[in-house]
């Protein structure tokens, strides 16, 4: 059986330096402006609330722009990722920004074993993370294990309806459900040479394995893991041009379907609390 982790890790290792060097991630702004936050975290603020003094862990943190932003909001943050190249960029960013963050190399399923269970007030997961995981129930158990009783999960993620759409859209721009909405045992296998930021870099590791997870599957997995869902908000924007040529920029570096965006849930924010044990 192909090791999906090795394939996906090689892809992220290949792309991390290009992401850090791109204008899209605005790494230098963290050094130039001590109040700068990533656009993703800035969008999250109204629902995220005050996190000062909390001990937080950011799962699948990539190059750390969101992790450092959370640290700037007063949380003591640990970032977790399985890509050593991504973590090298994240540690460099933390030094440039002047915000100390601990970064730990680990597969997300091994995070509780690496960090210890029950010690965190906040588990944060950002855009484009869950699609790399084959088993959402196993993920939910890790989240619950990391949190202390009363600790909170905060995740904003691409909506599974968006992930299920044909991309690129067919001629005429009709929204067409092409890929599985529900989690499948077998991955979607992609072979794509580019990446989602503007870059001239060329990559050699281009095969990835991905999975979709239905919203009901995610909510049920968290409940079964001992979490109580406290909020679920669906949004009509996404922080990248997910459907190229069919979206418009709408502010805060968010993108929205140009034609009748009310038809499509673009992203969602889900919050849950670990119940007392």
TrEMBL record:
GO biological process per UniProt = methylation
Which keywords does this chain's UniProt record carry?
A: Methyltransferase, Transferase
InterPro entries annotated for this entry?
Answer: Methyltransf_12 (IPR013217), SAM-dependent_MTases_sf (IPR029063)
Q: Which domain of life is it from?
A: Bacteria
Q: Which GO terms describe its molecular function?
A: methyltransferase activity
List residues of the Methyltransferase type domain. Answer: 58-153
Pfam families, alphabetized: Methyltransf_12
| Name the record gives this protein | SAM-dependent methyltransferase
């Amino acid at each position: 059986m192909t090791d999906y982790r090795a394939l996906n890790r090689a892809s992220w290792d290949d792309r991390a330096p290009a992401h850090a060097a791109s204008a899209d991630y605005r790494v230098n702004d963290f050094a130039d402006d001590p109040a700068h936050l990533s656009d993703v975290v800035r969008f999250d603020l109204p629902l995220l609330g005050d996190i000062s003094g909390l001990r937080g862990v950011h799962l699948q943190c990539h190059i750390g722009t969101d992790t450092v932003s959370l640290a700037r909001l007063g949380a003591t943050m640990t970032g977790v990722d399985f890509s050593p190249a991504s973590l090298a960029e994240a540690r460099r960013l933390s030094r440039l920004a002047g915000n100390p963050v601990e970064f730990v190399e680990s597969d997300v399923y091994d995070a509780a074993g690496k960090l210890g269970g029950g010690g965190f007030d906040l588990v944060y997961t950002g855009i484009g993370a869950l699609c790399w995981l084959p088993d959402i129930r196993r993920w939910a158990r890790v989240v619950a294990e990391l949190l202390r009783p009363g600790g909170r999960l905060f995740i904003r993620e691409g909506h599974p309806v968006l992930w299920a759409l044909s991309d690129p859209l067919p001629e005429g721009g009709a929204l067409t459900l092409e890929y599985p909405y529900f989690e499948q045992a077998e991955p979607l296998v992609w072979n794509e040479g580019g990446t989602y930021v503007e870059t001239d870099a060329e990559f050699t590791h281009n095969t990835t394995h991905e999975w979709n997870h239905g919203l009901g599957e995610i909510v049920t997995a968290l409940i079964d893991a001992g979490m109580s869902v406290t909020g679920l908000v669906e949004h009509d924007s996404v922080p990248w041009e997910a459907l190229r040529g069919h979206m418009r920029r709408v502010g805060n570096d968010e993108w929205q379907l140009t034609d009748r965006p009310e038809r499509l849930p673009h992203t969602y924010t889900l919050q849950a609390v670990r119940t007392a044990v």
